[in-house]
Amino acid sequence: MTMHVQEEINLERFWKVESLGVEQKSVHQGYEEYTKQYQNTGISYENGKYIAKLPWKENHPFLPSNELISRRRTVSVVNRLRKEPELLQKYGEILSEQEKRGFIEKITDVKSSENTKVHYIHHHPVKKDSATTPIRIVYDCSCKSTRDSPTLNKCLMNTSPILNDLTAILLRFGYHVFAVSTDIEKAFLNIGLHPDDRDVTRFFWLSDPNNPDSLLQIYRFKSVLFGATCSPFILNATITKHLALHRCDDTENVFNKDYTSITYLPAYQTSLHQQQTTVPESIL
To answer: Does the structure show a pLDDT above 50 at 137?
Structure first.
């Protein structure tokens, strides 16, 4: 009996591989309905910029402030970085640049209304093998004040965006001589965070970045931050909403192929290979 079950499993895997890229795509109805609802109620366009709300779980547990643990860990990060003054300076420069570009802001009045959620996020440096940017700042939205306390990420919807069909990408990839990969600079940070949700993204840093003994200053995000479990979904929903609102031939091509990475390039003559590369309409 065990052998028959194993044979059925192997046969099922075989047919899945055989039908890869051929079988009809399933409709992710639940995801699409939720995305449309979020786009209509959670994303707005104000003063030349998209503003997004955090997608909170219904009846999520009470979110603690995490102020004490965030303060302690920030002091620990400062003490660690003071041993490497160049990294401490670079850390401060990154935050100063983010403030200058409107991604974060200082909080002068720490008072908040009773209905306002307040939460502090821990952050720490991660070294990079780069001469220009030796470190990057990582924000920990999964930090717990106690073993049983909920985290910010646990209170937010973890809705992964639907990925593009890998088989179609690979097929189109093979029909061209060159492939181009692009990236949106600071994609998350270029989406504004709704004012009602900004106070759950508070964090501490030095009031004087050049003085590791200076008092801690409270900041908060004005943009969608890298580290929140819902950020990829917010980015995906914002891009698709923007494309849907500005329909044209180019956006139709993106919707029909890949909207997170455009792998289609027109056929052209290459001086290197001296050959025409044509993509069949069935693949497009």
So the answer is: yes
